[in-house]
């Protein structure tokens, strides 16, 4: 890539997705006559066969739900054809460094023919006469990697077998000779990324996934520390013991069974699940929700009130998001909003004046009795949300790092909750968020909201999937699991993103 080409590429790629984790989706072109016969095809102008065209279209279908920030393609005909037929993502950029290994005098020859003349020949060690040497293609791959590392978001790379194998080897720091062990079929999808999103830990998350497989872009570490995302999400242990009820898990090399994720309604908690506490959705989450809403109905149930939904969630969704597929249930389901040219409130189970006064007085008494020595607060500790009253120990606007430290093991709030059960047994008390306690009318919790979703949307519980960060006993997400909805425990928004990606590609 010369200086002008690098400038043009940087101008096209831009920095609009800065901050999103980089994932490189490497796509080998579809079948050609030479890939079928086994002839070495380097820089030759070869078109796809009819089968190759069908394979390229299939790749487009398999990846149609991935929001790509950038699409780059080799200048060679077979790769450009595959890119066009896949027909997804932004306008592709021609990247010369994605071209296939130059085979020189071996172009068009069969491996058996080459070995007959040079019995000890190995392309990845020796190169070809008058072609690219291993050192040259290694330098080209390193040059491209340096350009790709400054990008963010999902990037599609349409290229070729031998170059792709070298690129993967160099991505994880292996010499070109080791690339001979990484086979690539036509129209295969592979993914290069970072372990734990750390740039000093490059990883191969997916390799040589072909059309007969259910595509699942799942980062997985070699030491098992980071399991396949779907399996991790479904099997992770909850905060206070126990596991999600058994569901099918991924088996290496087998067809991926994702029936559990194919639901008519996907329900999310908000704080700690779609976004950090009181924080806005980030750009990646907003893009994933937009894609999800284009396919399936989605609901969000949170202890937060309607204004929080507006600023934290709605204000950060793009204008063309399909809001008619979105149901919003503030204050743990005690309110319900749907969209029809504007947001309409379907119901609100508000407290009476006497109920409010009783709850607030009891909260104040329970907190005083425990005396946790809270020296500083940020905003109100007790917020009347109409149908729910919420106590936030450090205040509604406390910094996340302070909130996460205050009651990491839930022990403080459990003491307050125990007192409240004696003081106001006629109300439901649940732990919510990182420092909060939610009080609603008796029997009204997130299971109540789930039941309202069933009634209003006509979707049965077995056709719903829930993701939340408080699925432990006593947490405000736990009633959803108790109601019988398949539930996935997540610890933060990053884990929720991986769950959504798995749903989109299952």
Description:
The chain is α/β, with parallel strands linked by helices. It has three domains: 3-209, Phosphoglycerate mutase-like (Rossmann fold, 3-Layer(aba) Sandwich); 229-349 and 445-504, Rossmann fold (3-Layer(aba) Sandwich); 353-441, Eukaryotic phosphomannomutase, cap domain (Hypothetical Protein, Haloacid Dehalogenase-like Hydrolase, Chain: A, domain 2), CATH 3.30.1240.20. Helix content is 34%, strand content 17%. It has 18 helices and 17 strands. The protein has helices at residues 3-13, 33-37, 50-62, 77-86, 111-117, 123-126, 134-148, 161-171, 229-235, 283-293, 306-312, 330-333, 353-370, 400-406, 411-423, 446-457, 478-482, 493-504; strands spanning 23-28, 68-73, 93-94, 154-159, 189-194, 202-209, 265-268, 297-301, 326-329, 335-339, 343-348, 382-384, 389-392, 427-432, 436-441, 464-468, 486-489. It has a seven-stranded mixed sheet. Strands 3-2-4-1-5-6 form a six-stranded mixed sheet. It starts with a helix and ends with a helix.
Primary descriptors:
single chain; 506 residues; alpha/beta; Rossmann fold; Hypothetical Protein, Haloacid Dehalogenase-like Hydrolase, Chain: A, domain 2; 7-stranded mixed sheet; 6-stranded mixed sheet; 17 strands; elongated; disordered N terminus
Q: How many domains make up the coordinates?
A: 3
CATH topology of the largest domain: Rossmann fold
Can you tell me the CATH class of the largest domain?
Alpha Beta
Number of separate helices: 18
Cα(first) to Cα(last) distance is 37 Å
Could you tell me the radius of gyration in angstroms? 27 Å
Helix-and-strand structural type? alpha/beta
């Amino acid at each position: 890539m010369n200086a002008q080409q690098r400038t043009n590429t940087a101008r096209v790629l831009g920095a609009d997705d800065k901050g999103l984790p980089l994932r490189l989706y490497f796509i080998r072109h579809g079948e050609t006559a030479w890939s079928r016969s086994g002839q070495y095809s380097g820089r030759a102008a070869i078109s796809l066969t009819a089968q190759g065209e069908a394979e390229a279209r299939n790749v487009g279908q398999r990846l149609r739900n991935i929001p790509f920030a950038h699409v780059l393609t080799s200048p060679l005909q077979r790769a450009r054809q595959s890119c066009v037929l896949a027909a997804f993502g932004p306008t592709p950029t021609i990247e010369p460094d994605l071209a296939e290994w130059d085979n020189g005098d071996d172009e068009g020859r069969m491996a058996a023919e080459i070995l007959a003349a040079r019995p000890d020949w190995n392309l990845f060690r020796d190169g070809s006469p008058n072609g690219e040497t291993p050192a040259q293609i290694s330098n080209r791959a390193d040059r491209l990697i340096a350009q790709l590392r400054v990008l963010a978001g999902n990037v599609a790379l349409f290229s070729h077998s031998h170059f792709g194998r070298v690129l993967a080897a160099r991505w994880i720091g292996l010499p070109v000779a080791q690339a001979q062990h990484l086979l690539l079929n036509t129209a295969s999808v592979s993914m290069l990324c970072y372990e734990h999103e750390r740039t000093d830990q490059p990883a191969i998350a997916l390799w040589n996934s072909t059309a007969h497989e259910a595509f699942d872009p799942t980062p997985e570490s070699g030491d098992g520390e980071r399991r396949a995302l779907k399996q991790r999400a479904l099997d992770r242990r909850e905060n206070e013991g126990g596991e999600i009820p058994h569901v099918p898990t991924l088996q290496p090399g087998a067809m991926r069974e994702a029936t559990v994720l194919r639901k008519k309604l996907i329900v999310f908690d908000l704080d700690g699940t779609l976004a950090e506490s009181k924080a806005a959705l980030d750009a990646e989450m907003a893009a994933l929700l937009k894609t999800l809403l284009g396919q399936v109905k989605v609901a969000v149930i949170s202890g937060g009130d309607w204004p929080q939904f507006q600023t934290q969630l709605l204000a950060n969704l793009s204008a063309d998001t399909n809001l008619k597929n979105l149901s919003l249930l503030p204050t743990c389901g005690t309110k319900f909003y749907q969209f029809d040219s504007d947001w309409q409130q379907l119901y609100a189970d508000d407290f009476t004046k006497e109920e409010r006064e009783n709850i607030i007085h009891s909260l104040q008494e329970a907190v005083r009795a425990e005396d946790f020595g809270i020296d500083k607060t940020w905003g109100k500790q007790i917020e009347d949300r109409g149908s729910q009253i919420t106590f936030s120990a450090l205040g509604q606007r406390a910094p996340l790092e302070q909130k996460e430290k205050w009651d990491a093991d839930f022990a403080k709030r459990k003491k307050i909750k125990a007192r409240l059960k004696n003081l106001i047994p006629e109300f439901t008390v649940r732990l919510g968020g990182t420092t909060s306690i939610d009080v609603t009318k008796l029997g009204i919790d997130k299971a109540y909201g789930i039941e309202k979703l069933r009634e209003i949307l006509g979707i049965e519980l077995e056709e719903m999937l829930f993701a939340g960060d408080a699925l432990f006993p006593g947490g405000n997400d736990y009633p959803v699991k108790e109601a019988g909805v398949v539930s996935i425990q997540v610890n933060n928004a990053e884990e929720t993103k991986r769950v959504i990606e798995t749903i989109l590609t299952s």
